[in-house]
Amino acid sequence: MTVGLGLFLFELLTGMMRERIGGYSEYLLYFAAVSLSVWGLKELIVSYWPSLAQRSMRFRLPTEGALFLIIMIVLFVGSMIGKSNTLMMVFALFAGSLIMNGNMAFVMLRSLSISRELPKRVMVGEPFTVTMTLGNGKWWLSAWVMICRDLVRHHQGSLRPEIVFMRVPPKSKQRGHYELCLHKRGEYIFGPTTVDTRFPLGLIERGVSFAEQAQLLVYPRIGHMLPSWRSRITHASELVTYVQPQSGPFNDEMHSTREYRPGDDTRLIHWRTSARMNELMVKEYRESRDRHLLVIVDVWQDPKLNEANVELLLRFAATLCLDQQRNSRETSLNVRLVGKKTLDWLGEIGDGQTEQMLDLFAVVESTTNSNPQPVLDSLVELRDKNRRVLLLSTRGKLIRQLIQQSANNELLNGEMQVLGIAPEEIGQLYDDQPH
Question: pTM, whole model, 2 decimals?
């Protein structure tokens, strides 16, 4: 665009082409200058707003091409001023090389296709591989020195990985790979993808954009709970009394059967097993202290601090929820994340449900709103006398104080257990490294 405008202004101010060659040459130069300007404007728009074109051709003049163009302009101006046919011939050779480079690159970029293969979910700090497949649909011409640039976007920044395909034969495909290791939790968008080439002379870079996109969720790192956590939660359960509906005369769960011993309660006799074993068998019970668990995570970010505390809290909460699912199959687990938006996982059972829970931990956004009322409202809304409530917050002390102050207002009843855990306590209960 700059070259076109420069040629237009140069001829308009000096009239050199009209004086040296004639009137028709002046109009030809004006046409070339306007064409270059319009083309440059189109390339500028596409480079800044690639979403405007689903598949668009791009043009860029590298440093080598810019220097080559400056030399061409000097030769052209010198031939016009000095009326030198030799300089004009050299200028024509330079111009031919530049035009041939651009046209060759344009032809090789036609009939290309690109596809991407990547996992749907990964964990923070876990390396993974993305596979790009470049297809050449032309019948007779290979695609040489193709640079595939992918765009990986996150709300905190972006990455631009590259793959170089040296040669893709006609009617064939080539696969390339790049490896990523992402250290930020959240949702990542892959695309659009560009394929560029400078072949054969490196004077002009042309490219084509592909708007296909893909999504990747990055989970917080999953570690493991330390024995001190199990001790703490068990000790807390023993200190809390609660009412649990009973289906029979015993409050415990049946564990196994054994032989009848003198003094055993006759109500414990399991008659069906006794008939099969031809001797009296009694039911043996074990005490069950497991209760249904509700985990409420207050994803609050102090504006004066970095996000390390929030990420630590989410890693701890995700590990805790997975540990609860593995070790307490007879109880249910519900999760609520209170951030910019309130996200709920209702403990559904089925294939892929654990991934759906971790998806919420990946996409939840922290809030800087200092009002803790949404957390207290969640306690009131979800309270259940047969369910333990575990409240995790980066402002644990404040939440504890508010809960104690509101206990007289029946925010919480005596049958509801709330454990507030601050970030400084997490290191004693949780190990960041997986088993």
Answer: 0.72
